[in-house]
Amino acid sequence: MVxxxxxxxxxxxxxxxxxxxxxxxxxxxxxxxxLFIMLYWILKYGDSMRISFGY
Length: 55
What we know:
It is built from two helices and no strands. By secondary structure, the protein is mostly helical. The chain is elongated and about 45 Å long. The model has no long low-confidence stretch (mean pLDDT 85).
């Protein structure tokens, strides 16, 4: 909880209203959650996936 309070106090988000702070934190948490889900899928099913990079 101390870390979250420090982020709110010393970052650019401190100037926003509480509603915008909640939206920003929610977006950040959802992005991090999606990244962890993608990492899990790559580690679990990566050997059977066919990933190609191209144009």
